[in-house]
## 1
Amino acid sequence: MNDQENSTPEMDDAMFAYSQADYQESIRLLKQILEAQPEHFEALTALSMAYCRLERFEEATRLGHQAESMRPNDPLVHTNLSLFYVKQGNKEKAEHHGLQAKIASWKTEMNPSANHAESDSDSNIPMQQPKMETYKTPSKFPDMPWKNKS
């Protein structure tokens, strides 16, 4: 699914409600999106975060694992799961998913095309260009015969 498919008025409304801390409304709208499109990854991850904000950590974790089954190598999935487990006091699982997030991030950095099988959402992001070498202006210039010498 690409960015244009994910950026729908319904998703925009859900994210606006989330940004206004109206998590109940955000949950309602995200559930509607997921009823129509059960594989909508962004709606699923947003829904899990909305539940987390309401301190409904079991539901957030369940949805986080559902997102993990869709994209097992997505750093965001593991970052969210780590947060959910921290909030539940499960240090071992939180650390596990924190490490998985780092590993997934490294994999993405080392092989950006590897994530395209799972997600095409970043295909419009330009690659970082190498830095141009800066030119240092000389501190002393050669004699300039056209200048008037006094």
## 2
Amino acid sequence: MRVFPNKVKRLWKSLKEISMYLLGASGHGKVIAEIAEANDSTIEGFIDEDKSKKMLLGYNVIHEFPKQPVELIVSIGNNTIRKKIVGKTKGVSYQTLIHPKTYISQRAVIAEGTVIMAGVSINSCATIGRHCIINTNASVDHDCIIGDYVHISPNAALAGNVTVGEGTHIGIGACVIQGIKIGKWCTIGAGAVIIKDVSDGATVVGNPGRIIK
């Protein structure tokens, strides 16, 4: 599912009629569960392969997929694991969860499986890919393009026309100036200031950002 102009409010309304499972019973799952609750969505429970986990936030944790088709959010923070799970999971529909206390432009596009947390701003004509995490108080400015399985951490800020490739993790409090292109499966360290393009697979830290790997 992609959310196109003028459909974000309708998405919030439709979430109230959805029953879903969250795949991953961990701290990240707790935050996603509370986003679902804030939207009055019905959470059927968590799915987790760790059989020692029985309950989380008062919801049952099951250890196998239900036999019937389900609506699902992958509530795992690791980008690589999230992609692997989506690749091997069949017979499910993925939902998009948006915390009601966000600002999202009516001209933004948000793909399926993505979770947008409290305090986020997504400005005009930004595009957010599949199964992304846009974490608490992050800012994505106009015309940014965010690839699939990206995690933008709390308080990170992307200026206009930034491109972020698949699987990249933007660390907490990082800043990216306008027009920068960050490649696939990169790691941008906490508090880094990115003023130059970043090639695929690079790890960047510091102010100004420097490649260390």
